[in-house]
Amino acid sequence: MSLLLDEHRCEVEARVAAASSLVFYLDFDGTLAPIVVEPELARMAPETRTVLEELSKQEGILVCVVSGRSLADIKSRVGLSSLVYSGNHGLEIEGDSLRFVHPEAGCGRAAIEDLNRRVAGLPLLIPGVQLEPKGLSTTIHFRRAGPTARDQIETIVRSLVPADHLDLMVTEGKMNYEVRPRLDWNKGSAVRWIHERIKDRAALAFVIGDDRTDEEAFPSLVDAITIHVGPGDSTAAGYYLPDQSDLGTLLGWLLELWKNRLGSADPASQPHISRPALALKESSPILNVRLRRAAVDRRRQASR
Asked: CB count, 10 Å around CB of 71?
């Protein structure tokens, strides 16, 4: 059971006051933006966008958006150039000084395209179903479908992508099914990949999300402050924020805490506190080589 954040703000405040820098890993749908019936209409509230932009401009803060949406889509919806973006559940990552596409992600593209062709008529068969092709993955939304149709949708999806499918896997989200390449890679992998490239090894991380795929990110970093947006039961997060509408207020509070932290970092009066600095390391090709080798090994085993 996670803790209600509002009842434990003093703990968070103490950690921010002692931090050398902050890194935010934020989900989009259901976290930065409210869940809506039509996914293409999802938008951040203006006040949330304003505080997110101000956070990203602060010395010693890095803001990352880690989403299941495609990289192009999430970059367009947030629209802030100074952030790091991760799309397709971490399969693609982009920031000012780094660019990553999982080397095996393309291996599932043909299977994804075949799936897209096979489910193209699903919205006509079952009213309320909406398809979201994302290049490297596909989301099948059923929020607008009737309750009696949901079992039928699951049966169809599971028959097209069974548990033993060689190339694809299915993850159930909030009123949707995510179909993506069968890889040992998820939002938590993306968070670790980004965090390993941050020079300040003592940076305090906030991991905030609302969906099942965000549960993969919560345990990805030791000592991170993890916050589930929604109920506090059945989550690996340390804290929970009951309502998405409170997210902007939370980020605004953290922004003020950090401004106070910077204001207190006066070497003349507090020599033990240094002004925070944060920068991304240059991306190393070593991980990509290892991932490619692992991909080759898996392909060889599958063909035996």
From this structure: 21
CATH 3.40.50.1000 in the chain is located at: 3-102+184-264
- Angle CA(264)–CA(268)–CA(273) in degrees, nearest 5? 50
7-54 pLDDT per residue, tens? 999 999 999 999 999 999 999 999 999 999 888 999 999 999 999 999
DSSP letter string over 21-88? -EEEEE-TBTTTB---SSGGG----HHHHHHHHHHHHSTTEEEEEE-SS-HHHHHHHH--TTSEEEEG
* Whole-number pLDDT of residue 105: 87
pLDDT at position 271 is: 39
* Mean local confidence (pLDDT), 235-246: 96
CA distance 147 to 154: 12
> Residue range 53-82: average pLDDT?
95
Instruction: Give residue for tokens 């804290």.
Output: 239
Question: Are the C-beta atoms of residues 131 and 116 closer than 8 Å to each other?
Answer: yes
pTM of the model: 0.88
Please state the rounded mean pLDDT for residues 242-267: 90
In the chain, the percentage of residues whose pLDDT exceeds 70 is 87
Q: What is the largest distance, in Å, between two alpha-carbon atoms of the chain?
A: 71
d(CA 31, CA 8): 20
Q: Residue holding tokens 């920068």?
A: 279
Q: Name the DSSP class of 185.
A: -
Which CATH architecture fits 3-102+184-264?
3-Layer(aba) Sandwich (3.40)
Q: What is the DSSP letter of 148?
A: G
Residue indicated by tokens 């099942």: 212
- Tell which CATH architecture fits domain 105-181: 2-Layer Sandwich (3.30)
CA nearest to 230, candidates 11, 10, 24, 35: 35
Question: Where, residue-wise, is CATH 3.30.70.1020 in the chain?
Answer: 105-181
What does the DSSP 8-state code read for residue 266? -
